[in-house]
Specification:
The structure holds two protein chains of two kinds. By secondary structure, chain A is mainly beta. Chain A has one domain: Porin (Beta Barrel). Chain A is about 10% helix and about 55% strand. In chain B, strands 2-6-1-5-3-4 form a six-stranded mixed beta sheet. Chain B is an alpha/beta fold. Chain B has five helices and six strands, in the order αββαβααβαββ. About 5% of the residues of chain B have low confidence. Classes of the chains: A mainly beta, B alpha/beta. At the A-B interface, strand 2, strand 3, strand 4 and strand 5 of A face helix 1, helix 4 and strand 4 of B.
């Protein structure tokens, strides 16, 4: 970490901790303007794994797991809301503590049934995509990584565009919430997504990503049974194009120093959540398929089709104000023409989490993972042997979050 | 197969039959800032507010929920269908994704009433015996 990045983080942390003593903060702009509602958070995690390096150099113990953000919102006019959030993160090699504009949008709500939101928005997707890096809003330290991969947030979380949203009453059948979005996504050439691809190209390297488009929708059926909701999400990303230099020793037909890949990604996600007394039950299924054409000097040189299937089930129980315990089991399978059976192609994760809330502004978590398979280790070149022959490996995750 | 179809049918009937009407708020009354035009809400309307389906009053003023942690949890559960910790998490998810305004907290009953009195568009559940000054009571039907 560079000195300037350390200064960024320390300044942000000091601000959040100072503000945290006052909890939520209203910034008054003047007598005729409504106050600005300010919130913020700072999370620091520690990952320690028994064998492999996962989400950083975890086999030696890694503190490279940080998230921090500050957001502000204001309702300057009737039915109008403006909101903005700055964010920085580091998980493994992704994020690099670079401050970024997480979202900045204006929305107008015509009525309960219909509203519009435009700008940089958080992309809806299942139970957690809009808040996958908000540690205080869940029981576990790590979400099921087959769906909510912490390294891919620059691909999965925000887009520049807009969405329509609302809730439609269904009489005795409950209500239907919807968000329909479309926009543009930019990925940096040193992002977590790039790390994954670069490792398959070594020593070739991605030189740039093109801006690509994504359109999708999230539907939630809020059933008449209190606490039960069922969701479905669809996303279609196209013009997912990038340029890369030729990997040494790559097999023919590649023969030029600069190559280009054009791709499309289709995502489906199905979710169910049930809140019953102090219990929270959740389950999701996620299917991602990628189609890519690689061009060599403008000529189609290769076509590839890959997909991933992930599911998980989760239950948590709130014992009292300061203790919540939860656990989940998830399975991820990667495949081309068939799902993987070798351990590099799947990852099965059983997690047990303890969440402590010593104060309304402070959360502390401890979590254990028992993992079979190594499919998600593909961004770390420090894992030379990923075939673990069915033996489990383990990871300890500790995280604390301060918020206001 | 017939058994499975019967079970699916029963589940469907359960889900579409509708939940029974919510009882009156347990030991709580609903208050709002005196500038709010509404004098009453249905239980469904109150739940729509506490579950973020309704974010604005008629006329366009944004709704600001104010809460009193620990003191009115039972009434809050009846209004929202969520336990207090679930309610807090629900609104944190909205606030940190740019989709809603997190409820404001007060430390005691007098502070909550004062917060509602001074915040445009505010609504809160207070203990039934609370002294109401500078706010209006909202009837729940």
């Amino acid at each position: 970490m560079t000195h300037s990045k350390q200064k960024h983080i320390l300044s942000l942390t000091a601000f959040i901790l100072a503000a945290g003593s006052a909890q939520a903060y209203d910034l008054s702009l003047g007598t005729n303007l409504p106050p600005v509602d300010l919130h913020g958070f700072f999370s620091q995690g520690y990952l320690d794994s028994s064998k492999y390096n996962y989400l950083g150099d975890s086999s030696r113990g890694s503190f490279n797991y940080t998230e921090a953000g500050i957001n502000a919102s204001i309702n300057p006019f009737p039915r109008t809301r403006i909101t903005v959030q700055g964010f920085l993160f580091e998980v493994g090699n992704a994020g690099k503590y670079e401050p970024l504009l997480d979202y900045a949008s204006i929305e107008y709500t015509f009525n309960d049934y219909f509203g519009l939101r435009a700008g940089r928005i958080r992309k809806p997707g299942g139970l957690y995509n809009t808040i996958q890096d908000i540690d205080l809003a869940r029981t576990s330290v790590l979400l099921p990584q087959g769906i909510y991969d912490a390294r891919f947030r620059d691909f999965s979380t925000s887009l520049d565009g807009g969405e329509a949203f609302g809730t439609l009453p269904l009489s005795k059948a409950g209500s239907l919430g919807y968000e329909v979005y479309s926009g543009l996504i930019n990925i940096a050439a040193d992002s977590g997504v790039a790390d994954i691809i670069n490792n398959s190209l070594t020593p070739g390297k991605i030189t740039s990503f093109d801006q690509f488009e994504e359109t999708g929708a999230q539907l939630w059926w809020n059933t008449p049974l209190d606490g039960l909701r069922v969701g479905a999400a669809f996303g279609y990303a196209f013009n997912f194009d990038y340029n890369f230099t030729e990997p040494t020793g790559y097999p023919p037909p590649y023969n030029t120093a600069s190559l280009n890949t054009k791709g499309a990604i289709v995502v489906q996600q199905y979710s169910v959540e049930y809140l019953w007394k102090n219990w929270t039950f959740q389950a999701e299924y996620y299917h991602l398929q990628t189609s890519q054409d690689t061009f060599d000097a403008g000529t189609l040189a290769n076509h590839s089709f890959t997909y991933e299937n992930t599911w998980y089930g989760d239950a948590s129980y709130r014992f009292n104000k300061w203790l919540e315990v939860g656990g989940y089991y998830s399975e991820l399978y990667q495949g081309g023409t068939a799902l993987a059976t070798a351990s590099q192609g799947y990852q099965k994760d059983a997690a047990l989490s303890f969440r402590f809330d010593p104060a309304s502004w402070w959360v502390f978590k401890v979590e254990g993972h028992c993992i079979h398979g190594t499919a998600l280790l593909d961004d770390n070149t420090d894992n030379p042997v990923r075939n673990q022959n069915g033996k489990p490996w383990y990871m300890l995750a500790v995280k604390t979050t301060f918020s206001f | 197969m017939k058994t499975l179809l019967t079970k699916v049918g029963l589940l469907g009937a359960l889900l579409t039959a509708g939940a029974p009407p919510a009882p009156a708020l347990d030991g709580g009354v609903v208050i709002a800032n005196s500038g709010v035009a509404a004098d009453s809400l249905t239980t469904d309307g109150l739940k729509d507010i506490y579950t973020a389906k309704t974010k604005y009053w008629d006329g366009g003023q944004n709704i600001v929920i104010a809460v009193l942690p620990d003191k009115t949890d039972a009434a809050l559960q009846q209004a929202s269908g969520m336990e207090a910790s679930q309610f807090k998490t629900f609104w944190q998810r909205l606030a940190f994704s740019g989709r809603g305004q997190e409820p404001k907290s007060a430390g005691d009953v007098a502070g909550l009433v004062s917060l509602v009195a001074s915040t445009k568009g505010a609504i809160a559940i207070v203990p039934a015996e609370a002294a109401l000054t500078g706010v209006k009571k909202i009837d729940i039907k």
